[in-house]
Amino acid sequence: MCVTRGSKVEGTGRPNSKRLTDADGPRSPALRCVRMAILIKICGLTTADTLEVALEAGADMVGFVFFPPSPRHLDASLAETLGRRAADRARKVALTVDADDALLAAIVDRLKPDLLQLHGHEPPERVRTVKHRFGRAVIKAIPVSAHADLGGLRAYAAVADYVLFDARPPPAATRPGGLGNAFDWRLLENLDPGVPFMLSGGLDPENVARAVALTRPQGVDVSSGVERSAGAKDPDKIRAFIRAARRALTPEDAAARSA
Question: For tag attachment on the chain, is the N or C end more exposed, with fewer CB atoms within 10 Å?
Fold first, then answer.
């Protein structure tokens, strides 16, 4: 994972990712590829205690779900309370599924999220509209089960601040994510979507390092992988996941360390 010095990812204040090519000219020290600490998002938080664990363990983003079929769904009052705890300590992400403007406006008003995560069937035009109408950076989730699922990636990369690759849910699923399912990470090997991307779907403390080494994402996102049961976060698993993700090495890291 490489970044150029000085550029930023909107909504994070962190360095942006950019692929350096020969067209950029000689790779002077100012343009040399440098390692960026991976972004870690703990999603589906529903209690003050587990939110505090995620914040103290060093999560960069904390996610709150606004989708009634999910066991992690929050009402507006609780979301506002948790949002105040997270303010200025991590980026707040509001996850919605095909939400209309009225719902998004209510969420923005109560939670005051830093980013909106669109986890439904929103087309690129809707992503662009949401971003500009609500003045928030946008994460667009893309379900993946086969290489063909990456066919529309460029259109989303042109309008989203991040794309998030998640496992495609089974046909009978009542929600699009948070199911604990993984997909074939090899589909993302050497992928350059043109925008920072995050990996989700079936991640847990035991496999996140392997997933990072294979796909080299700018961020990782976990929900069910740090739970003791659906919707009930496990503090020890949250801490273990963040430790494992922080220590994960990309192939470039490993080569540099052995040089």
Answer: C
